[in-house]
Amino acid sequence: MSTNDPDDEGKEVARHEGDLPSKFENPGLPAHPHRLTDVDPKTARRAERQVAFLFLLSMVGTLVMIVGYFVVKMDHDLGFVAYLERLELSNKVLGIGMAISLLGIGVGAVHWAKTLMPDEEKIDYRHLQRGSDEERTEAVEKLATGVEESGFARRPLIRNTLLGAMALFPLPGVLLFRDTGPLPGRDLAETFWKAGDRLMLDPEGGPIKASDMVLGAVAHILPEGIEESEHPLNEKAKAAVLLIRLEEDLLAPESIPGSYAGIVAYSKICTHMGCPVALYEQRTHHLLCPCHQSTFDLTQNCKVIFGPAKRALPQLAITVDDEGYLVAKAPFSEPTGPSYWERSS
Known about the structure:
Shape: elongated
Strand content: 5-15%
Order of helices and strands: HHHHHHEEHEEEEEEEE
Low-confidence stretches: 10-14
Organism: Kineosporia succinea
Region (Disordered): 1-41
Mean pLDDT: 85
Helix content: 25-40%
Domain Rieske: 223-327
Family: Belongs to the Rieske iron-sulfur protein family.
Number of helices: 7
Oligomer: single chain
Pfam families: QcrA_N, Rieske
Largest sheet: 4 strands, antiparallel
Strand order of the largest sheet: 1-2-3-4
């Protein structure tokens, strides 16, 4: 029979008939072997300096990351090979700095715990989940005692170096997040599309007539003149469009004003994470994003019917010019691409 009651200590804890004794005495805890740092103040001070050195080493690693981030310039004008070499050097400097920073904090904390914090074994008896007010007060006192025993308050060298290492460690993360670029602002709200732009086939180029779009046909489209823009790749990433023809009576009422003879044009950029929505199921009239399986229904103005996307694909209003070529009626009425906080503004 086992017990969790402290009052039972030293009493009978097991019974057995036969050759075994009728009871066993509680053997208690074995004698505690003291560490050298427990009995020798000089050794304890040396261990304290070692822990502080490890925390200082962590600070050095963090500073290496920060300095390396600014010193190793990533310049595309160097050429492709030189750029890759710089990229490799930058990754090595950042990686080594982060490794030193994490290693210093981790090893320092472990060394502190194993050499300077109390390591005596204690028995903690189980009680009900919610203790009395007196027990809760006692628990707070024990926590305060634990803080005192850890040496955090009375070992300022360790405390200050640890605080310094922990304060410096997040800074490289702030710098690395800076590389994600500025907030999009109006960049996603303004694409290359404008009223009168002809719809050009991608990638073969050339305009497309409404008569070229048979029922069920799908075409990948970009605006006319986008290749001559200042940043054609960036512009294509926002302006890519899917052109599809289906029966006019299947179209949702809100999508009809932007369509022409059953031909509709929707942004090709998924509103979840910006992947290309390039899979069309002709039987169900669904558009599928292959990255995370967001599904949009063409017959419901590209409303999301499945997946993580939260917004419908923006529609590009189209018509034809005097020669029968498909052209844009107007730019997109809302930002294309994935959602972000400032979209509504």
